[in-house]
Design goal:
There is one protein chain. This protein is α+β, with helices and mostly antiparallel strands. The protein has helices spanning about 1-10, 50-80, 85-110, 120-130, 135-145, 195, 200-210, 215-230, and strands at about 15-20, 25, 150-160, 165-170, 180-185. The chain folds into 2 domains: about 1-110, Fe,Mn superoxide dismutase (SOD) domain (Helix Hairpins); about 120-230, 3-Layer(bab) Sandwich (minor pseudopilin epsh fold). About 50% of the residues lie in helices and about 15% in strands. Strands 4-3-5 form a 3-stranded antiparallel β-sheet. It has a two-stranded antiparallel ribbon with strand order 1-2.
């Protein structure tokens, strides 16, 4: 694994990009593909090693490369003072950076030792804001199954309302509120489960509860609540 990881890190980094027209060197993108915190097959039988390898090494890496390319192209546009394509470049950055961010969280939200129910402050907050863990699980499952096409379901800390909320969003970045901090994300793009579950998303969502890393989610919750409470106006 160590050799593969080193190769991936090297492939996702670059030194500089040169603009031929001006000779100005533009710093390349800073985003890199994170290592998985476990082996590809560690989440079996809930998610197969083949899925994890393709999902991480191909799909996630494509988002990293896409985000870095968008940064390079935005820098080049600034150097040239040519903003004719800025709308498309901003969309490219949002989509690819969204994919990179979401997956970076997703990997840590899963664990071979996961499953069960959260405890501590996270458990208390879920009971407070959703009534019970079962009620939370029911709403989250419905949100994940209800995503039309490709997208995500997630548990978020709402720093304005200072409460937990569930949001579903489409593609990698569409239709979730600013000021919300992702705590637990579930990828429901078909590339996340098709080799294991074909088109039966419900079986994949059900299996995902067996590997949910509530320890990681709890740490994210405590950090989000501590760092963002009271920062935003309009609560």
């Amino acid at each position: 694994m160590s050799g593969r990881r080193a190769q991936r890190r090297g492939a996702s980094r670059g030194a500089t990009a040169t603009v031929a027209q001006t000779g100005v060197k533009i710093p390349m993108g800073k985003y890199t593909l994170p290592e998985l915190p476990y082996d590809y097959a560690a989440l079996e039988p809930s998610i197969s090693g083949k899925i994890m390898q393709l999902h991480h090494d191909k799909h996630h890496k494509a988002y990293v490369d896409g985000a870095n390319t968008a940064l390079d192209q935005l820098a080049e546009a600034r150097e040239k003072n040519d903003f004719a394509t800025i709308n498309q470049l901003e969309k490219n950055l949002a989509f690819n950076l969204g994919g990179h961010t979401n997956h970076s969280i997703f990997w840590t939200n899963l664990s071979p030792e996961g499953g069960g129910e959260p405890d501590g402050e996270l458990a208390s907050a879920i009971s407070e804001y959703f009534g019970s863990f079962d009620a939370f699980k029911g709403q989250f499952t419905a949100a994940a199954l209800g995503v039309q096409g490709s997208g995500w379901a997630g548990l978020f800390w709402d720093s304005i309302g200072e409460n937990l909320i569930i949001q579903q969003f489409f593609d990698q970045q569409s239709q979730f509120a600013a000021g919300t901090v992702p705590l637990y994300l579930l990828d429901v793009w078909e590339h996340a489960y098709y080799l294991d579950y074909l088109n039966v998303r419900a079986d994949y969502v059900k299996a995902s509860w067996n590997i949910a890393n509530w320890s990681n989610v709890g740490e994210r919750f405590e950090t989000a609540r501590e760092k963002t409470t009271g920062l935003l106006v309009g609560s």
